[in-house]
């Protein structure tokens, strides 16, 4: 238990160090400061200054947590900061639901449940850090620390493009969830024929006469027949199922009496 | 039905009927449901030949539709009406609760005699968040829309290739536009066409 508490200043310290550096040094972050909820809170003109001040505050708390000696007041400071994060996220969700929080990097997504969960984990870790004291290092503790950092990173939507998106792309490449079976590949959806139809001069010359969308379609002898209602009758198109030559599309306009 | 089809087939392949010239009107493909109003409608006035809303009840061939502006429409479906629900469908596919766009001719009694009805049609843009079994998880204005591939129906239109049923070129993270049929009261859509910029 004391080991876990002793671990927290390092976990929170590293996280705040990163957040502070991103705010102070990130060019994109400064460029997008006007689009964060902070701009709504303090005004767009003061958004960059407020962002830098928040970064300085985070760095100060990070330095206090990471440098010895471990004092309860450092945990109290981190707790106050985490509560501030939660309050800010609540404000952002209510006052500027379309704005990003500007917490850990430039991105345009609004505050999400993950953001609240991350602030909640930080708050819990900060409270635990109040009781942090000297503790001998142990491999199990290091693993717990890494797991905690992984959880915090996993709850950071700002970082999704660095790990979540590549991971999903890899899984899609391996699993091929949209791969078509040979049977499916032989089947030609109606929309494929319609796309060819729209490109054809037969359709362009007749479209003004059409009154409806597709009424009926069927395949026969390698040709797909597509029927529309037309002014005064029916338009029937013959679209070849094989090949992609729009000039092969044919059309006939038939008077209504001829069909009855 | 067969004899009618044979007649239509012989007309188009046998040269039994002529091709007519184009006039000022436009096409009525699914895209037309989102198209501009016909030019004869004065700006700011409702188009009498158009109705949208959700079906409250169906009686015989008549749909009672509540529009999104709380105006009721009575829409009559006749033999020549085209019905689209992920593709051309028969009248028995029309269900209460379906959303629709309809074009037709407004009769003197206020009933819209429909020429085309598009059921549950949606046109959404977004980023692909993830791809799982036959599904695109679309991030649309930070809300997730599940887009289902329907075998034999769903088509991908790429910028550098002909349209095809092969959606496997779609990538996580890319932007797409999906034309499809909404599953009423869910965040799910069956894909008719997915447009990819690459």
Automatic annotation (TrEMBL), chain A:
Coiled coil: none annotated. It is found in: Membrane. The chain crosses the membrane at residues 6-26, 47-67, 73-91. Pfam families: MauE. This is Methylamine utilisation protein MauE domain-containing protein. Residues 5-131 form the Methylamine utilisation protein MauE domain. It comes from the Bacteria. Keywords: Membrane, Transmembrane, Transmembrane helix. The keyword Transmembrane applies. InterPro entries: Methylamine_util_MauE. It comes from Sphaerisporangium flaviroseum. It is a multi-pass membrane protein. The keyword Transmembrane applies.
Automatic annotation (TrEMBL), chain B:
The lineage of its organism: Bacteria, Bacillati, Actinomycetota, Actinomycetes, Streptosporangiales. It comes from Sphaerisporangium flaviroseum. This is Cell wall protein.
């Amino acid at each position: 238990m004391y080991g876990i508490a002793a671990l927290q200043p390092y976990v929170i310290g590293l996280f705040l160090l990163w957040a502070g550096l991103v705010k102070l040094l990130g060019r994109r972050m400064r460029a997008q400061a006007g689009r964060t909820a902070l701009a709504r809170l303090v005004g767009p003109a003061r958004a960059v200054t407020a962002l830098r001040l928040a970064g300085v505050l985070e760095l100060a708390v990070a330095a206090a947590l990471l440098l010895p000696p471990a004092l309860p007041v450092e945990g109290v400071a981190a707790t106050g900061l985490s509560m501030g994060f939660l309050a800010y996220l609540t404000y952002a969700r209510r006052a500027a639901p379309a704005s990003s929080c500007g917490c850990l990097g430039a991105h345009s997504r609004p505050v999400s449940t993950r953001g609240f969960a991350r602030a909640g984990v930080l708050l819990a870790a900060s409270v635990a850090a109040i009781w942090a004291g000297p503790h001998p290092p142990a491999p199990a503790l290091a693993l717990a620390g890494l797991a905690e950092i992984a959880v915090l990173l996993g709850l950071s939507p700002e970082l999704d493009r660095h790990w979540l998106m590549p991971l999903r792309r890899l899984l899609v490449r391996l699993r091929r969830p949209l791969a078509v079976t040979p049977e499916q590949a032989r089947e030609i959806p109606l929309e494929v024929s319609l796309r060819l139809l729209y490109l054809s001069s037969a359709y362009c010359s007749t479209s003004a006469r059409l009154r409806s969308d597709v009424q009926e379609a069927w395949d026969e002898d390698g040709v797909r027949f597509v029927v529309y209602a037309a002014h005064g009758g029916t338009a029937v198109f013959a679209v070849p199922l094989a090949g992609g030559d729009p000039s092969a599309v044919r059309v006939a306009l038939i008077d209504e009496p001829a069909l009855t | 039905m067969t004899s009618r089809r044979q007649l239509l087939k012989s007309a188009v392949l046998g040269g039994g009927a002529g091709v007519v010239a184009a006039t000022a009107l436009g096409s009525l493909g699914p895209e037309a449901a989102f198209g501009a109003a016909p030019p004869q409608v004065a700006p700011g006035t409702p188009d009498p030949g158009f109705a949208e809303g959700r079906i409250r009840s169906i009686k015989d061939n008549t749909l009672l539709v509540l529009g999104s502006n709380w105006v009721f429409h009575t829409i009559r479906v006749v033999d020549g009406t085209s019905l689209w629900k992920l593709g051309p469908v028969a009248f028995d596919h029309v269900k209460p609760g379906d959303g629709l766009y309809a074009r037709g001719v407004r009769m003197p009694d206020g009933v819209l005699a429909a020429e085309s009805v598009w059921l549950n049609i949606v046109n959404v843009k977004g980023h692909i968040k993830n791809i799982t079994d036959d599904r695109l998880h679309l991030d649309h204005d930070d809300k997730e829309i599940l887009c289902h591939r329907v075998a034999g129906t769903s088509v991908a239109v790429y910028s550098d290739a002909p349209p095809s049923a092969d959606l496997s070129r779609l990538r996580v993270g890319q932007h797409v536009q999906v034309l499809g049929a909404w599953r009423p009261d869910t965040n799910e859509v069956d894909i008719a066409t997915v447009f990819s910029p690459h």
